[in-house]
């Protein structure tokens, strides 16, 4: 007799990770860092963040800060519009129990703090 499959408690969380420079990080030579939009699975957001940071470090990236935007349902409740391509990446992260990097944006001199610079 086959056991019924346990319902997975895994959910997918949307994370924005800022990274600094590190030798071998693959960012453009003139970049000062970057930001990655990531979909990561986990039983809670803390686990998704831990797994993401560990994987990024293995990939020779230097994670500095992680901002969590919640699950698909939480984002929809906040009024975020989520297109089919984004949903497909979230589905992939859940199906593979993985971390999916959806977008990498390199920062160049001063961009990472744009809008936060004091008036001269």
In the predicted model, the low-confidence regions spanning at least 5 consecutive residues are: 114-120
Q: Could you tell me how far the N terminus lies from the C terminus, measured between alpha carbons in angstroms?
A: 74 Å
Per DSSP, the total helix count is 3
Q: Outline, from the CA principal axes?
A: globular
Outline the fold blueprint.
Elements: E1 11-20, E2 31-42, H1 45-58, E3 62-71, H2 72-77, H3 84-96, E4 99-108
Antiparallel strand pairs: 1-2, 1-3, 2-4
What does this protein structure show overall?
The protein is an alpha+beta fold and 120 residues long. 28% of the residues lie in helices and 35% in strands. The protein has three helices and four strands; from the N terminus they run E-E-H-E-H-H-E. It has a four-stranded antiparallel β-sheet with strand order 3-1-2-4. The chain is globular and about 45 Å long.
Question: Can you give me a brief rundown of this structure?
Answer:
This protein has 3 helices and 4 strands. The chain has helices at residues 45-58, 72-77, 84-96; strands at 11-20, 31-42, 62-71, 99-108. Strands 3-1-2-4 form a 4-stranded antiparallel β-sheet.
List keywords for this structure.
120 residues, globular, alpha+beta, 35% strand, disordered C terminus, four-stranded antiparallel β-sheet, single chain, 3 helices
